[in-house]
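User: Reviewer 2 asked us to show a designed sequence for the structure in our supplementary figure. I'm pasting the structure tokens here. Could you produce the per-position amino acids so we can include them in the response letter?
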């Protein structure tokens, strides 16, 4: 069909409500968990925002509230005739930076609320910071995100559709995605989507409500895999998720627009996520190296510009200087897009194939890169390595010694304090560089399997006999599954009881099979019953359904 481990420390309370003149709640203060006060530099994603080099001239005769004047207009894109929103950057073969963004006339009768009638445009710059200049108008659409398919074509997602082209310069053809919820509730509708390409060219997508969807090639039908949102278990008003993948793991940031606070999550497979503590971003992050600060009221529509390894090197935001409903036609308020550089994670690799109770030393190699020499550019006394759960709070294994390997450097850590367990899929190096600035990097863990089958089922469907049911099983992983067993259980008097079972054959990626289950033991399933399908494939997975 077509459709338009965080613990109790994350329990937030509402303290202060601020109401706009229209009576709509626009801002609420979220009290941070006390535990966050113990985070060290680099323990939260917020610490990665770097100071910005001045771009062009500092201007004071420009639109905006006093909190954003004077400012560097040439950061990102802005002008007095248009309000800009959303957008992300890709690097082209022409060695230019291409920003795909939406806009509407600042003089529109509805002010900022004209956004449903916005138009997507293509802007270009010689660098990623700006100023970007519009070179092409593509068509109607809002909240664009551009990504490239494995076959080289480009997709610009917009709410309710997409544009596709062989080249960044067009021509662009409009189309609509197909979405199959697979008997799962669609969480808060299908808008504000964000996409990440997997190793095999398939695409993972997260929707505004936090559901995870997968497509075999990024253009074919997106199929929902999760039953519930993957966001942090807090009372946030979430929107604007952005997802990206690097050479180590998947990353996601989601914004609580009402609380003006965002959260950072990581995953080994893009489906099962853990939330890191601390703010991902918040107002107050636009700071220049010369001391100039721009205090934008809201930061939304975060997009990440990545390097060749997928590492996040720049954050781009849609920003506005006041409440959205206070941005009126022809007034002194508007919105634009800005870029903020990020501290880039270093390339590191864990050399131990396993870490056990008998391990004496942990070896981590730090690779040299242009502009970075690991032999001279690190403050060795500050370095720690281990699971992020302890590293972010100043713990982890302590550095004992170093050893050169060509241009690279091997760090030798003690084997105590790393805190790795079965829930970890990445190691984290954290400390400071020789100038006292943040230094960090993530490594894969050699004993973790990053490419596993992902068997998922639809709701059981009754066929011609009362106790005969069929279940569709599909492999959403990037590797083939093994032959495995499947059980259908029904909840009777608060206890799970076996209804029947079946065998599932080997399934290739995105291949599916329908299995038949015959009821036994005199049990039956009726409308309103809660059932679960249990698949024994490497790790046991369970999917719950209410029979309708």
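Assistant: Here is a per-position design you can include in the supplement:
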């Amino acid at each position: 069909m077509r459709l338009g481990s965080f613990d109790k420390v994350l329990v937030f309370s509402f303290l202060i409500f601020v109401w706009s003149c229209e009576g709509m709640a626009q801002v609420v203060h979220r009290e941070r968990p006390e535990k966050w006060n113990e985070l060290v530099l680099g323990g939260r994603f917020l610490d990665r925002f770097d100071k910005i080099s001045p771009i062009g001239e500092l201007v004071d005769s420009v639109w905006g509230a006093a909190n954003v004047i004077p400012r560097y207009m040439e950061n990102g894109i802005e002008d007095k005739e248009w309000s800009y929103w959303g957008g992300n950057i890709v690097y082209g073969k022409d060695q230019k930076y291409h920003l795909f963004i939406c806009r509407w006339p600042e003089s529109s009768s509805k002010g900022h609320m004209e956004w449903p009638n916005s138009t997507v445009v293509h802007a270009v710059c010689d660098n990623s910071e700006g100023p970007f200049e519009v070179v092409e108008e593509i068509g109607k659409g809002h909240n664009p995100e551009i990504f490239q398919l494995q076959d080289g074509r480009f997709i610009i997602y917009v709410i309710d559709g997409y544009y596709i082209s062989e080249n960044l310069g067009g021509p662009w053809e409009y189309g609509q995605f197909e979405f199959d919820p697979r008997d799962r509730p669609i969480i808060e509708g299908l808008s504000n989507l964000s996409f990440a390409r997997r190793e095999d060219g398939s695409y993972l997508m997260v929707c505004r409500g936090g559901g995870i969807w997968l497509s075999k090639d990024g253009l074919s039908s997106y199929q929902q895999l999760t039953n519930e949102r993957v966001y942090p278990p807090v009372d946030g008003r979430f929107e604007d998720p952005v997802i990206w993948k690097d050479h180590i793991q998947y990353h996601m940031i989601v914004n609580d627009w009402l609380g003006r606070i965002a959260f950072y999550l990581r995953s080994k497979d893009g489906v099962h996520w853990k939330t890191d503590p601390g703010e991902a971003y918040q107002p107050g992050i636009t700071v220049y190296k010369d001391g100039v600060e721009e205090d934008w009221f809201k930061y939304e529509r975060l997009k990440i510009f990545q390097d060749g390894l997928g590492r996040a090197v720049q954050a781009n935001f849609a920003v506005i200087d006041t409440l959205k409903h206070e941005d009126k036609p022809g007034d002194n308020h508007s919105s634009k897009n800005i870029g903020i550089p990020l501290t880039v994670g270093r390339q590191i690799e864990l050399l131990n194939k396993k870490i056990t109770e008998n391990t004496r030393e942990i070896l981590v190699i730090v690779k040299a890169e242009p502009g970075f020499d690991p032999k001279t550019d690190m403050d060795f006394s500050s370095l720690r390595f281990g699971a992020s759960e302890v590293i972010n709070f100043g713990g982890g294994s302590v550095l004992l010694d170093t050893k050169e390997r060509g241009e690279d450097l091997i760090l030798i850590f003690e084997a105590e304090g790393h805190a790795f367990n079965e829930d970890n899929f990445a190691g984290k190096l954290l400390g400071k560089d020789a100038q006292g600035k943040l230094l960090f990097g993530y490594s894969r863990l050699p004993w973790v399997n990053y490419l596993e089958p992902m068997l998922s089922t639809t709701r059981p469907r009754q066929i011609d006999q009362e106790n005969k049911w069929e279940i569709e099983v599909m492999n959403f992983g990037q590797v083939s599954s093994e032959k495995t067993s499947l059980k259908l259980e029904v909840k009777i008097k608060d206890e799970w009881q076996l209804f029947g079972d079946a065998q599932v054959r080997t399934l290739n990626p995105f291949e599916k099979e329908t299995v038949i289950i015959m009821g036994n033991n005199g049990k039956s399933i009726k409308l309103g019953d809660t059932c679960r399908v249990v698949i024994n494939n490497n790790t046991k997975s369970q999917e719950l359904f209410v029979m309708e």
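For the response letter, you might also mention the following. The helical segments are 388-391. Residues 388-391 form the longest helix (4 residues).
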